[in-house]
């Protein structure tokens, strides 16, 4: 587990972050797109492993397989992240983009309404507490 943690930290996050920085700095569109695809796949991988770790951590060589997967994603020879992005993620997101956008707008609106509602309640509770404290 600890080996995977450090491997993912160094090679899954810090190494790609540095090369993403270099791509942005150089304004090399090809490199920029390559690293954006990597980050999208890595975000999906990180999300998936949150759930798979619960159920599969007992599986023999589970962490070793995850290390191999991260190495495969990064490898300039296999171009794993580009392959997964182009074959699966892009087509799926393209076909569901409208629905996802609608859900995000609704969630944003609902979260704003909830924030306003709870903010008002919090201010009322604070005002009530202040009046009670002042009256004592």
From TrEMBL:
<keyword id="KW-0812">Transmembrane</keyword>
<dbReference type="GO" id="GO:0071782">
    <property type="term" value="C:endoplasmic reticulum tubular network"/>
</dbReference>
<dbReference type="GO" id="GO:0008017">
    <property type="term" value="F:microtubule binding"/>
</dbReference>
<comment type="similarity">
    <text>Belongs to the DP1 family.</text>
</comment>
<dbReference type="InterPro" id="IPR004345">
    <property type="entry name" value="TB2_DP1_HVA22"/>
</dbReference>
<protein>
    <recommendedName>
        <fullName>Receptor expression-enhancing protein</fullName>
    </recommendedName>
</protein>
<dbReference type="GO" id="GO:0005789">
    <property type="term" value="C:endoplasmic reticulum membrane"/>
</dbReference>
<dbReference type="GO" id="GO:0071786">
    <property type="term" value="P:endoplasmic reticulum tubular network organization"/>
</dbReference>
<feature type="transmembrane region" description="Helical">
    <location>
        <begin position="6"/>
        <end position="24"/>
    </location>
</feature>
<keyword id="KW-0472">Membrane</keyword>
<dbReference type="GO" id="GO:0031849">
    <property type="term" value="F:olfactory receptor binding"/>
</dbReference>
<keyword id="KW-1133">Transmembrane helix</keyword>
<dbReference type="GO" id="GO:0005881">
    <property type="term" value="C:cytoplasmic microtubule"/>
</dbReference>
<dbReference type="Pfam" id="PF03134">
    <property type="entry name" value="TB2_DP1_HVA22"/>
</dbReference>
<feature type="transmembrane region" description="Helical">
    <location>
        <begin position="36"/>
        <end position="61"/>
    </location>
</feature>
């Amino acid at each position: 587990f600890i080996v995977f943690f450090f491997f993912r930290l160094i090679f899954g996050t810090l190494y790609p972050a540095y090369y993403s920085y270099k791509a942005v700095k150089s304004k090399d569109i090809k490199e920029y797109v390559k690293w954006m695809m990597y980050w999208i796949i890595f975000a999906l991988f990180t999300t998936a492993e949150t759930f798979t770790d619960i159920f599969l951590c007992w599986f023999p060589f589970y962490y070793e397989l995850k290390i191999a997967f991260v190495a495969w994603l990064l490898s300039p020879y296999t171009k794993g992240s580009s392959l997964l992005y182009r074959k699966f993620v892009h087509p799926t997101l393209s076909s569901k983009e409208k629905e996802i956008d609608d859900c995000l707008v609704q969630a944003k609106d609902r979260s704003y309404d909830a924030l306003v509602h709870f903010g008002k309640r919090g201010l009322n509770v604070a005002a009530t507490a202040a009046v009670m404290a002042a009256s004592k």
